[in-house]
Amino acid sequence: LDDIRGQSHARRGAVVAVAGRHSMWMQGPPGTGKSMLARRLRLLLPDLTPQRALEVASVEALLRPLTSMSTRPPFRAPHTSASAQALLGGGSPLRPGELARAHGGILFLDEIPEFARPVLEGLRQPLEEGEVRLQRAREWATYPADVQLIATSNPCPCGYATHPKMPCRCTPSRLNAYTQRVSGPLRDRFDLCVEMGPVDADALEGPPSAPTDEEVRLMLQQTRDFQEQQHSLRGFRVSSEATLDQIRATGLDLASRRLLRQAVSTLPLSGRGLLRCLRVARTLADLAQREGMKASDVREALSFRPAPLEAEVTTWPNRFPRPPRNHQRPLKAAPPDAP
Question: How many CB atoms are closer than 10 A to CB 318?
Fold first, then answer.
C-alpha cells in the first residue's frame, strides 16, 4: 500500500475489507488509484488453507491440466465485455466461469457499470450462497464460489462529476442511465463503499502514508490471531460469514443499539444492509482487538454504507457548467388552412 499516496479513507477501507473479507466498491474520477488499490489487495490476503487450496485446484483442473497446487488466493479480473456464460460458467460440456475460478480469492470488476445488466444480475444469488448452480436440459453442475467482490466505477460517463476542477459534460439523462446500470439489490450487497478523489501534489511527492506496509501486515496478522481465538467457538472465522445472532453474541453496548435504531429509522437501511453494517462494525472491533463493539465502530461502519440509488436527476448541478447544445433551426408554423 505504500504506492497509494493519500487516500487515507480508501486505505482504511482496504484494510477493513481484507481483515473481514468484505466486498468493497470504490468510486471516483479517473486516475485516483481505484484499480491500483484493488490489485494490491491480493498481496495482503493470507495463504489458502489446504482444504481451500484443494478446492481451487479442483476447479482449475476442469479447464486445464495442473502441474502444481498454488497456495495463494486467486485474483480474477474479467473484461467488461465478458458474457454471462464467461462469468458464471456454461458451455458444452459445462465448465466453470470466472466466478468459480475466483473461489477463495478476489473477483475484481473494474468499471462495473460497463458490464451487461444480465451479467451483473446473475451474480446476486451466487454471492449470497457461495456457489454457482448451472442447470441445462441434459446436465447440471454446482461450482464453489466463495469470493470477495471488489468493484470500481466512475461517478458519471465522462468521469468528472465529483472532480473539484474538471467540469462534468454529462446530461441529466446520461447520468440517470449510468446510475441505473447497477441495480439497487446488487448495490446493497456491498459491505464497503469508498469515495475517492484527486490527491494533492504534497501527498504525491511526500513519504508514504501511515500506516506503512509493514504496519498493515502486522495489524492484519494480529487481527487474524484475535479472530481465531475469539470467534472459532462461535462458529465463524471472519465477520463476513457471521449471522446476526452470532454477531450480537459478541457484545453490543447500549450506545451502539441506540445508534443502530436511529440509523434504521432515518437512513434507507434494509435488513441486509443492517446485517452488513454490523459485520463491518465487528471487523473494526477485531482490528482494535476488542471483544465487544462500541458506538464508534457502528458509526464508522455506517460511513462505509453505499449511497442510496437516486430515482432521477432532475436538476443540473450548479457547480458544473451545462454542456453546449447543438444549434437547431426552429420549426416553421403551419399555415392556418393546413389540414
Answer: 7
Strands 95-96 and 89-90, bridge-based pairing: antiparallel
- 96: helix, strand or coil: strand
Beginning with the edge strand found earlier in the chain, give each strand of the sheet holding 106-109 in spatial order: 75-76, 106-109, 148-153, 24-27, 192-195
Residue 274 vs residues 128, 219, 268: alpha-carbon distances, Å: 15, 26, 10
What does the block give as the cell for 219? Answer: 495489524
User: For residues 220 and 185, what is the distance between their CA atoms, to the nearest angstrom?
Assistant: 30
- Cα dihedral sign, 256-17-51-132: positive
Cell 498454488 locates to 70
CB 52 within 8 Å of CB 189: no
Q: What is the pLDDT of residues 266-318, one digit of tens each?
A: 888 888 888 999 999 999 999 999 888 999 999 999 989 876 555 444 344 44
CA 57 to chain centre: 25
Q: What's the whole-model pTM score?
A: 0.86
Q: Is 90 helix (H, G, I), strand (E, B) or coil?
A: strand
Residue carrying C-alpha cell 478476489: 106
CA distance between the termini of the chain: 73
CA distance 8 to 134: 41
